[in-house]
């Protein structure tokens, strides 16, 4: 049996949860409803009990017994109404079961006291007692144990009063006892069933709530995992710029849009010069730091609409939508200068950093991203061959040969 099932087990005799904390949770959950229903039921019962004063008058007239009965009825009704107010304000099954029991014991005492004052009305009172027992179990909200004890007190007290004051024969006393036992059994079983069913419903509701909470937790966890996975797939772990595959996806979309809208699109291939030497001189850890700084500078030198990715090793790639060749040239020059100006301290203060940038420009519709990258890469290669630390641009519309025109950003060199 699971832990949850054990917690939800219900006592076969009291109809309450075996588990104390579950039971107190259940009682707290019904507290407001119990207060309201108890108040209403007590008002109703008080009105009915008071109305029997009319039959007292019819039977007794204005006799001493009548006044005694009237006083008793007024006392019982006043106490019940007072308790209805108190229970309505601060009644609680969990902490003040005695407060809920009190009206039942007062009513029971009132009903028992009728017999010594009106013994001849025993037959009518038997019906009233059976109705009262049912009301104790089913009308006035109470714990089964509380209702059972009060009903038992009423039954025994009434039987004793009937024997002592109404002088019924032993056979009639036995009949009456059987009737009262029957009424108690029926009331007890009905309330036991009701109590168990309500608690089972409560347990089911809570189980469902717990499952929903676990499900929500699981969804949150999965979403965070998904976000982490996406991050790993989309971001370069060292520099934080786009991974190569993610860059390709974004740049592809931007290029297609540019072709659709017939706007210019440029692409940079940026390569750190002599990076092997940097690694060899300052070590790979500092090499990594330098790559991170370069990525940061690149991002700062670009517009938010540009996309930047790490293409591999010490090579970065940038896609610039809505950028004319002259603007691209200016951006690349600025970026190159910003890298050169990167401030390094301590051991790295000797470091002279530079990058070579190859630019590919797409003006015509059928150029695809791979060809654009190849052309930018070719320009990068030209730049490296020509001495590094420069910007070299490829112009598509002037591409009559396989290489096309290229220019050195520093001296305006063209082929
Ligand atoms: N620290 C570090 N080094 C890397 C990383 N990825 C690649 N490299 C190194 O970058 C260096 C690239 O060297 P090369 O391709 O010979 O180029 P280079 O030395 O920059 O020379 P040029 O590009 O011709 O100017 C290699 O030594 C790689 O080991 C990285 O993530 N971190």
UniProtKB/TrEMBL annotation:
InterPro entries with a match to the protein in the record: Diguanylate_Cyclase, GGDEF_dom, Nucleotide_cyclase, Rev_trsase/Diguanyl_cyclase
Transmembrane segments: 40-60, 66-86, 98-116, 122-140, 147-168, 174-194
GO biological process: cell adhesion involved in single-species biofilm formation; negative regulation of bacterial-type flagellum-dependent cell motility
Keyword Lipid metabolism assigned: no
GO cellular component: plasma membrane
Reactions catalysed, as given in the entry: 2 GTP = 3',3'-c-di-GMP + 2 diphosphate
Cofactor(s) listed: Mg(2+)
SUPFAM superfamilies, sorted: Nucleotide cyclase
Pfam families: GGDEF (PF00990)
Enzyme Commission number(s): 2.7.7.65
GGDEF domain mapped to chain residues: 263-396
Keywords, alphabetical: Membrane, Transmembrane, Transmembrane helix
Molecular function GO labels: diguanylate cyclase activity
NCBIfam families: GGDEF
Name used for this protein in its record: diguanylate cyclase
């Amino acid at each position: 049996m699971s832990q949850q099932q054990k917690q939800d087990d219900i006592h076969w005799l009291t109809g309450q949860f075996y588990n104390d904390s579950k039971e107190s949770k259940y009682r707290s959950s019904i507290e407001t409803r119990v207060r309201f229903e108890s108040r209403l039921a007590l008002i109703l019962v008080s009105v009915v009990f008071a109305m029997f004063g009319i039959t007292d008058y019819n039977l007794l007239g204005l006799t001493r017994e009548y006044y005694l009965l009237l006083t008793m009825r007024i006392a019982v009704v006043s106490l019940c109404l007072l308790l209805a107010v108190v229970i309505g304000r601060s009644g609680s099954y969990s902490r003040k079961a005695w407060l809920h029991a009190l009206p039942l014991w007062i009513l029971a005492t009132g009903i028992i006291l009728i017999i010594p004052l009106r013994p001849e009305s025993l037959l009518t009172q038997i019906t009233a007692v059976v109705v009262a027992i049912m009301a104790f179990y089913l009308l006035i909200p109470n714990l089964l144990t509380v209702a059972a004890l009060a009903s038992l007190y009423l039954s025994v007290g009434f039987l004793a009063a009937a024997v002592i004051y109404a002088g019924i024969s032993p056979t009639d006393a036995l009949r009456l006892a059987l009737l009262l036992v029957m009424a108690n059994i029926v009331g007890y079983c009905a309330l036991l069933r009701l109590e168990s069913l309500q608690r089972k419903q409560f347990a089911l509701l809570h189980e469902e709530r717990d499952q929903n909470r676990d499900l929500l937790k699981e969804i949150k966890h999965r979403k965070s995992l998904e976000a982490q996975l996406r991050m790993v797939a989309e971001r370069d772990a060292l520099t934080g710029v786009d991974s190569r595959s993610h860059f390709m996806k974004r740049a592809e979309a931007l290029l297609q849009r540019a072709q659709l809208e017939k706007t210019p699109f440029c692409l940079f291939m940026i390569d750190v010069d002599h990076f092997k030497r940097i690694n060899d001189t300052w070590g790979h850890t500092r090499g990594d730091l330098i790559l991170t700084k370069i990525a940061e500078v690149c991002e700062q030198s670009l517009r938010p609409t540009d996309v930047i990715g790490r293409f591999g090793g010490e090579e970065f790639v940038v896609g610039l939508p809505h950028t004319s060749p002259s603007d691209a040239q200016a951006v690349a020059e600025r970026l190159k200068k910003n890298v050169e100006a990167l401030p390094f301290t301590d051991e790295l203060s000797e470091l002279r950093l530079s990058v070579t940038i190859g630019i590919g420009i797409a003006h015509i519709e059928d150029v695809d991203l791979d060809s654009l990258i190849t052309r930018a890469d070719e320009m990068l290669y030209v730049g490296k061959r020509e001495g590094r630390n420069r910007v070299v641009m490829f112009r598509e519309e002037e591409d009559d040969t396989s290489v096309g025109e290229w220019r050195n950003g520093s001296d305006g060199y063209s082929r």
